[in-house]
Design a protein that fits this description.
Layout (H helix, E strand, L loop, with lengths): L16 H17 L3 E6 L5 E7 L2 E2 H25 L15
């Protein structure tokens, strides 16, 4: 399977059909999922500002809601499993986990 279908090629000398299929899948899937649009949003003064958006969210909103919050929640849930004690929020102080 790996040598006849999904062999990775570097430099483009040859390409297996699995590589071509993977490339086509990546291009179509990711372009549909992450295709920015420009939307005009009025600010507080009433001026419309054009913002690049993905799924009707600005880039900072998308990163905060879709990545940062989920990554932090994963860290918080895994902390007791990895280190054997509960996560304590707040600034780090020497001896706070003792």
């Amino acid at each position: 399977m790996h040598t006849k279908v999904l062999e990775q090629t570097f430099g483009g000398s040859k390409q297996r059909w699995g590589d071509l299929l993977r490339s086509l899948r990546d291009k179509t899937t990711h372009q549909k999922l992450i295709k920015p649009t420009i939307e005009k949003i009025p600010n507080q003064e009433g001026y419309e500002i054009s913002w690049p958006m993905i799924n009707h969210q600005t880039y900072p909103e998308l990163v905060q809601r879709e990545f940062e919050n989920n990554a932090f929640e994963m860290l918080r849930e895994l902390f007791p499993v990895l280190y054997g004690f509960e996560w304590k929020s707040g600034p780090y102080k020497i001896g706070m986990y003792a």
